[in-house]
Amino acid sequence: MTTTHGRYARMPTPRQLVLPAAAGGCLALAALAALAATGAVPASDAVVLGVVLLLLGAQALVLLTVRRADGKAMRVDARTKRCEAELARLSAATERLDARLDEIAGLLAERRHRHDEDLREILASLGEDRLHAMSLRQEVARLADLLPRPDGAAPEPARRRAAAESGT
């Protein structure tokens, strides 16, 4: 009565077992009734045998149901163990990723710090170059004031020209 499902034999369901057992039980009770009716077996013995057969059938049904439930419990237990193993594997992977993310965050913070330092150095260098350029412009303006103008105009004082060029 077992059917195959994949490569494993499948246990019959209680319904599949009850139908043939009920048919066999009915035949046994009919035979007992016939024996009691013909007088081959006393009626009280036939009733006792009938009750014994009924109880044996019920006991067999309970035994198969418990066996089937035990099989299901074993499958659930195996599935739970597989899930726990998968969860442990995922937990380990998560911890590795967390450690790697912490490392990456540290590297990014260090790089940002270096970038900020580089920007400060560039801005400081630009500021120094601008101050140097302003001092050169003022010196050129002073020298230009010393030279005579080709149009014959009087030279402007260097301070006025430097103020006009810088926009202040």
Q: What would you note in describing this structure?
A:
This protein is mostly helical and 168 residues long. It folds into two domains: 3-117; 123-166. The protein has helices at 14-38, 43-146, 158-166, and strands spanning 3-5, 8-10. Strands 1-2 form a two-stranded antiparallel sheet. Helix 1 (14-38) runs antiparallel to helix 2 and helix 2 runs antiparallel to helix 3 (158-166). The protein starts with a strand and ends with a helix. The model has no long low-confidence stretch (mean pLDDT 81).
Topology:
Layout lengths: L2 E3 L2 E3 L3 H25 L4 H104 L11 H9 L2
Antiparallel strand pairs: 1-2
Q: Mean pLDDT score, rounded? A: 81
Count of runs of 4 or more consecutive helical residues: 3
What is the spatial order of strands in the main beta sheet?
1-2
As an assembly, this protein is single chain
Radius of gyration: 52 Å
- Please provide the count of β strands: 2
Structural class by SSE content: mainly alpha
**What is the CA-CA span between the terminal residues?**
106 Å
How many structural domains in the coordinates? Answer: 2
Low-confidence stretches: none
The largest β sheet comes out as: 2 strands, antiparallel
Helix % is over 70%
N to C succession of SSEs:
EEHHH
Taken from the alpha-carbon principal axes, the silhouette is rod-shaped
Range of strand content: under 5%
